[in-house]
TrEMBL record:
Keywords: Transferase. The keyword Transferase applies. It comes from Methylobacterium nodulans (strain LMG 21967 / CNCM I-2342 / ORS 2060). This is Acyl transferase domain-containing protein. GO terms for molecular function: [acyl-carrier-protein] S-malonyltransferase activity. Residues 6-307 form the Malonyl-CoA:ACP transacylase (MAT) domain. One of its GO terms (biological process) is fatty acid biosynthetic process. GO terms for cellular component: cytosol.
Amino acid sequence: MTLAVLLSGQGGQHPGMFDLTADLPAAQHVFTAAEGVLGADPRELVRAAGPTLHDNRTGQILCCVAALAGWAIVEAARPARVIVAGYSIGDLAAWGCAGRLGAEAVLRLAAARAEAMDEASGEGFGLAGIRGLGLADIRVMAEKHDCFLAIRNAADSAVVGGASRALDALCKEARAAGAQRAVMLPVRTPSHTPLLEVASRRFEDALAREGLRHPPPGAPRLISGLDGAPVFDMRAGLHKLALQISRTIDWAACLEACREYGAQTVLELGPGHALTTMARDAIPEARVHALEEFRSADGAADWIRHS
């Protein structure tokens, strides 16, 4: 059996996001490391809810915590063939799951990434999700409103970044043109657009200061969240990891890479189930679940073992 593990991006943070992992012994080092970066226990922070869950810095760190804590379940049950891919901030978490970076480094870098993005973008920017129109049409509408195509999700689905007012106008036009969905997302930076060019350079400097690990025997295959290509040269992979902050990412290519690798089972780690929905469309022959769809960590592990 081949397992594809998908690491979530921002937007789905919620009070119950650590319900399955909060008490896992194998995940405790992740929560401890996160407390040092966040200044609070991430489990208590999410239970308290509130708008801080969607602050850029907090949200990016929490997504990485969710991915790394969830990986503790996968690691105990995983098959021999595993591929990992991350969406936006999940791309950084994937390096931790693949054994290229330690948990402490991933969380430290998540904070540095968010800080660089906040400094580069300022206030009044964000992202919008559009589904039900062709990518060419979405791109034309985006350019008309001085916005940018940020993420290619599928042939008829994309994320667009830019100024909040422009995105609001773009969503209205997209709905009038027949889009099934065109809404502002709970993300306050224009991720994956040229507006964050400075942030890419700053984050690449932060990556260069971190020590990389050679993947252990049997480590998952890591693919780049920028273009779906396998990461063999770690320095080249780190360059892509920094570049995706300010370049359009091709998530559709990442899902195609999972399919070409022969993924028969797909599991999403992180808050929400947005990647699960996309994977079910892109790899219809696979068994697909989000970790949050299980009632217990043991149930998720059993599903992995027997899929």
